[in-house]
Structure to design on (382 residues):
């Protein structure tokens, strides 16, 4: 009976208290009330042990989230930067990316964008669970938007090669074009737009923390530039010399914002309330 | 924000009684249990005793000494003594207030 009662406790608890607890059970004639009390105590010990392992997971989870946000911000922005080089050799063709009218994403840049997108996805899920404790509905609603955008853009990046067709030119040479309608670039563009817009929402929800402010500035600037180039009425803006400068400042702020969010996560400590 | 060190939830009363028992010096679990049963007249089950001991140890209010055979004595730490004194002063204020009100009502 005493051995059975002791075995109700978790192994970790028995390693620490098992001997002394067993000696008490041996020294005492157990009443039915004692048995109920011990069963109750065993349940309590299980809850405590599980809560501690969850807190341990929380610590490692924040490290993973922080690393994913830091690397994701850098890798995604670097991938976008690489992808903005036109296959024809003309640099800084971000205009064609945001207008979606040419195969501007070089396949050589796609793996980097894919890696960055996956890292940002991991970071977003982690941030949702860690920040969501303060305002669960608000944070998760804001995090779900960029997650959806990230998933759409990820799907498009993987589907990109399938939508690329090679067409023979009049002079006999071959050129690559994306199939219409709704080719991979466009799907990626829309997914990326949702992701950046969602990041903006998330940064608003987590303000006034300073990393959120940088992320907000970067996302806002990127969105303004993309939308400025997407509408026919404002498309001429892209011809302005300052357009690309603003776009890359936004991209840089976006990357720095994610790095800052990641660094804060890496440095933060999980409050492990004694249980 | 870290919870107050004496936030023991439903183990607050057993925890307080254990701390008071340890003010006399180090004691092992069985000695604490029998002493408290003798003084309060209420039995404290082994499950409750060890749930409270584990929480007090986690918060650094008591510490375990080297075991003697299978029995491990516990002693009050400096932090534990300070927290206990604060807690008893708080309770004392409540008790005085309550008794005062009862006295006023009796008059």
């Amino acid at each position: 009976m005493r051995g059975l009662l002791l075995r109700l406790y978790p192994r970790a608890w028995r390693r620490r208290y098992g001997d002394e607890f067993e000696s008490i059970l041996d020294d005492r004639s157990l009443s039915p009330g004692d048995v109920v009390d011990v069963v109750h105590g065993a349940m309590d010990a299980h809850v405590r042990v599980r809560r501690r392992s969850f807190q341990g997971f929380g610590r490692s989870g924040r490290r993973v989230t922080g690393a994913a946000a830091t690397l994701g911000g850098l890798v995604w922005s670097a991938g976008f930067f690489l992808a903005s080089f036109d296959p024809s050799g003309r640099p800084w063709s971000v205009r064609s990316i945001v207008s979606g009218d040419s195969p501007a994403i070089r396949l050589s840049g796609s793996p980097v964008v894919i890696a960055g997108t996956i890292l940002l996805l991991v970071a977003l899920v982690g941030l949702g669970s860690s920040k969501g404790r303060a305002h669960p509905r608000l944070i998760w609603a804001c995090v779900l938007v960029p997650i959806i955008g990230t998933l759409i853009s990820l799907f498009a990046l993987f589907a990109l090669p399938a939508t690329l067709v090679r067409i023979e030119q009049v002079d006999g040479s071959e050129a690559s074009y994306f199939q219409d309608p709704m080719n991979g670039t466009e799907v990626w563009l829309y997914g990326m737009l949702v992701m950046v817009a969602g990041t903006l929402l998330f940064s608003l929800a987590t303000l006034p923390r300073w990393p959120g402010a940088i992320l907000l500035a970067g996302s806002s600037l990127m969105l303004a530039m993309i939308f400025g180039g997407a509408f026919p009425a404002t498309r001429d803006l892209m011809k302005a010399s300052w357009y690309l400068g603003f776009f890359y400042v936004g991209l840089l702020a976006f990357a720095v914002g994610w790095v800052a969010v990641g660094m804060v996560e890496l440095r933060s400590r999980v409050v492990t309330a004694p249980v | 924000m870290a919870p107050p060190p004496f936030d023991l939830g439903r183990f607050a009363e057993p925890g307080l009684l254990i701390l008071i028992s340890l003010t006399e010096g180090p004691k092992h679990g069985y000695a604490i249990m029998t002493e408290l049963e003798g003084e309060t007249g209420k039995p404290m089950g082994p499950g409750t005793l060890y749930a409270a001991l584990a929480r007090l140890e986690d918060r650094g209010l008591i510490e375990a000494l080297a075991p003697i055979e299978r029995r491990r004595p516990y002693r009050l730490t400096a932090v534990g003594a300070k927290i206990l004194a604060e807690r008893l002063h708080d309770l004392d204020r409540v008790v005085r207030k309550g008794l005062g009100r009862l006295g006023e009502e009796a008059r």
Q: What stands out?
A: DSSP finds four helices and three strands in chain B.
